[in-house]
Design brief:
The chain has 338 residues and is α/β, with parallel strands linked by helices. Helices cover 42% and strands 16% of the residues.
Amino acid sequence: MNIIDYPRWPSLARESILNVPMDLRSIKLNINGRIIDYSEEIDSVVITGMGGSGVVGDIVNDLCWFWDCRVPIIVSKNMRLPRRLSKPLVIAISYSGNTAETIMSANEALTKGYPVVGITTGGKLSTLLGNRGVPVILVPKASAPRYGLPALLYPTLVILERFSVASVTSELESGISGIERALGHVDDATELANQLLNSVPVVWVTESRRGVGIRFKNDLNENAKYYSVVSVVPEGAHNDIAAVITKQGGLRHMVIMGPNDYEGLYEEVLIDVISSFRAKPIIIKLEGKTPLEAEMYGITYLGIVTLALAGLLGVEPVSTEPIDRLKSLLSERRIFQV
C-alpha cells in the first residue's frame, strides 16, 4: 500500500516550525491608515481555512479541551469572518495560497485592523499578505493539502505559544511520536479498512476529539471517495442514536476514544446502548501520553486506514475532481472577488 506523504510527517512538522518568525510580537503595520500592532493583547484567535487547511482549527479546538488556552479559539470555514470580534488574532491557513474563501477572510481582517498571520506554500495569499508586510509562514509542499497537515498545524501551535495563548512547546515532540507510532500500525489499518468495505461508516466522537472525527470523515471522502457520517456526542446521543433501532443495512458504527477524555464514561454507556441493538461498534482507541500525541496518532492512523480502503476499492486517492470542478466554476462565475 502506498501511504503517500505520511512517512514525511515527522520531518514536515519539524521543518515547518523553523519558518515561524521569532519577532512576531514586535511587528507593527500601517495598512490603509490603520495601525496593526502585534504586541497588543488579543481576546480570541480566529483560525480560518477550508478543507485540509481548515481542519487545523478543529484540531486546535480539541487540544484546548485539555490545554489551558487563555482565549477562545474560533474556527471559521467561510468567506467572511465571524461578526462581533473585538481583538482577535487571525491565522489564515491555505495550503495552496489560492483558496478564495481564506484570501477574502484575511483581507477582511486587515481592513478591520486585526493582526493576521498567514500559513501557506505560496500563491495569492502569500503575495497579498507579503506585499503589505504581514507575516507569512511558508511551509514545505506535499502531494495535496491534506497530506501536508503537520506543516500547517505545527506553525499554528508555535504561533499560539508566541501569543501566550497556550504553552505547547513541551508537547511538540510527543505529537511527532504519535505520528511515528501510527506509522508502525499499517497492517492494523489495512485490517480495519477491510471491515469498512460495503458499508457507510458512522463515526461517533466526543466534543474533545471532534477534530479527529472530522479529519477521518474528510479523509474517507477525499482519499477513498467514500461517504461517511460523523456524530458528535453528547449531542449525537440525543438524536442520531435513535436511527440505530431502525437496523438499516450497511451502517458500520465506529467509536473514537482518547485517553483521559472527560467524556470517556459517557462513551462507554453509548457503546452499550448501540450494542444492545445489535449494532456493535468498532472501537478506535487513541494512543498517547499527551493530548497532542493522542490526537496525532489518531489522525495519522485513521488517515492510513482511508488509504488502505482506497486501495481495496481500486480508487486513486490523491485527485479530487469534483472539488476541482467546483473551484473552477466558482471562478468562472466570479462568485469570489479576490
